[in-house]
Automatic annotation (TrEMBL):
Keyword entries, A-Z: Cell membrane, Membrane, Olfaction, Receptor, Sensory transduction, Transducer, Transmembrane, Transmembrane helix
Organism for this UniProt entry: Manduca sexta
Subcellular location: Cell membrane
Cell membrane listed as a keyword: yes
Gene that encodes it: OR-11
Entry similarity comment: Belongs to the insect chemoreceptor superfamily. Heteromeric odorant receptor channel (TC 1.A.69) family.
GO cellular component assignments: plasma membrane
Domain of life: Eukaryota
Residues passing through the membrane, by range: 41-64, 71-92, 146-166, 187-207, 213-236, 290-311, 323-343
InterPro entries associated with the record: 7tm6_olfct_rcpt
Name of this chain's protein: Odorant receptor
């Protein structure tokens, strides 16, 4: 690949997976991104508000057991905040393992971008052999895909959070000014408002805690989801580039005579493909261990959250502002679940090759029988698919997403209005 073209491509990869993930981790309060477990004091204050309001939410759930509408409202928000606490714990307590995964991405990408491919191992000239870096276009492609997905996800979360936080105050102002109704103080989160009865200052303290908790909860969800989805996108893109790279083990196949130089280059490419494949498989296993338990809980919680939202849409007599807020919250919840399942399914599909792909599509007629045997061994190792799990029973894929939606609808049919 010409050096000028390579440098232009490097400029296009400035907003890569690692930089975006590190930026979101810093927004969550980690001072050095994934490289350190130090948490900023403002983040500690936000975590304290988060825990306090969540305890008040649980108390509100217990107190609302006689009010169906209030109960479903408290349960749906408590599920979202509870999963956020689990994500926060996982990001903070397992920071060394997350850092290891991010470092693997950085090292692998840098080596692929800066590599001269295998020109250094060639000591002959041939029109058949190309020395261009085959990884760069794929790295550019999946980095652009990640930036687009992360931008969309952030906009969905932020818009949903803003509408959800502002709508209680907007509705309170409208009904107070135009309808002259006597209402209680509005709240961002459905909590046990014990301080409202004491003084207006107590109400202000509650609102500040709720606002900080809501903002930090959204940031935690964004950070975890973008981190998990970003690593999945990286794995899928790398498997796609590995498939293309392994197809060129024997060259373009235009020159059929077997030479020692061509065998040496093919052996080098086999080792390189095997090394990349081992790194990717290890990354899948590490990511699976990190997200397996929390996604198992999330699948269980998401079912009841979707069910409670559907019941509220059907049973409650709500204003237009409440309806818009609830529909937007429902859409964001489904989008969050769909993205995780979609890219989990993509990892499963991209991690395996079939006949005619990868090493099985290489020009084996240009190499010696010994190299052909090594190519077959490499191909057999790349045929096994690898999946991500959500708990001990579910696989992170699109059928699981459909199953959750169906289960939520079944629960809605049972406990919903007749």
């Amino acid at each position: 690949m010409p050096r000028r073209y390579r440098n232009d491509n490097k400029k296009e990869i400035m907003n890569n997976v690692v930089l975006v993930l590190t930026n979101f981790m810093r927004k969550m309060g980690r001072q050095n991104g994934y490289q350190s477990g130090n948490v900023h004091w403002l983040a500690k204050f936000a975590i304290l508000c988060y825990l306090s309001t969540y305890i008040l939410q649980l108390i509100a759930v217990f107190l609302a057991k006689g009010d169906t509408e209030r109960l479903f409202e408290c349960v749906s928000v408590a599920c979202f905040c509870g999963v956020g606490l689990l994500k926060l714990y996982l990001l903070l307590s397992k920071h060394s393992r997350w850092s290891f995964l991010i470092n693997q991405i950085t090292l692998l990408e840098n080596k692929q971008l800066n590599s001269e491919e295998d020109t250094f191992c060639l000591d002959y000239k041939s029109e058949d052999e190309d020395s261009e870096n085959q990884f760069t276009p794929y790295i550019i492609s999946y980095n652009k895909r990640f930036v687009a997905i992360s931008t969309i996800l952030v906009r969905i979360y932020v818009s949903t959070g803003v509408v959800y936080a502002v709508s209680p105050f907007a509705e309170y102002s409208f009904r107070k000014v135009f309808l002259n109704e006597t209402l209680g103080y509005p709240h961002i989160l459905p909590c046990w408002a014990v301080l409202d009865e004491l003084s207006f200052l107590g109400y202000l303290l509650t609102i500040v805690a709720e606002a900080v908790a809501a903002i930090y909860c959204v940031v935690v969800h964004i950070t975890f989801d973008i981190t998990a989805v970003g690593i999945m996108i990286f794995i899928c893109g790398q498997f796609e580039s590995l498939r293309r790279c392994s197809e060129s083990i024997g060259g373009k196949g235009k020159v059929c005579n077997v030479t020692a130089e061509r065998d040496a280059r093919a052996r080098f490419r086999i080792k390189k493909c095997h090394r990349i494949h081992v790194i990717l498989i290890h990354s899948i296993k590490e990511l699976k261990e990190l997200i397996k338990n929390i996604l198992g809980v999330y699948f269980f919680v998401a079912t009841f959250k979707l069910c409670s939202l559907a019941v509220r849409l059907k049973t409650e007599n709500m204003s237009k502002m409440q309806l818009v807020t609830l529909v937007q919250y429902l859409g964001a919840s489904i989008t969050q679940l769909f993205l995780l399942c979609y890219y989990g399914d993509a990892v499963f599909n991209e991690s395996a090759i079939t006949m005619g792909q990868g090493p099985f599509g290489a020009a084996i007629w240009c190499v010696s029988p010994k190299i052909r045997r090594d190519i077959v061994i490499l191909g057999m190792g790349m045929m096994k698919p690898h999946s991500l799990q959500a708990g001990p029973f579910n696989v992170l894929n699109l059928p699981s997403f459909i199953q959750i939606v169906r289960t939520a609808y079944s629960c809605y049919a049972v406990i919903g209005p007749k």
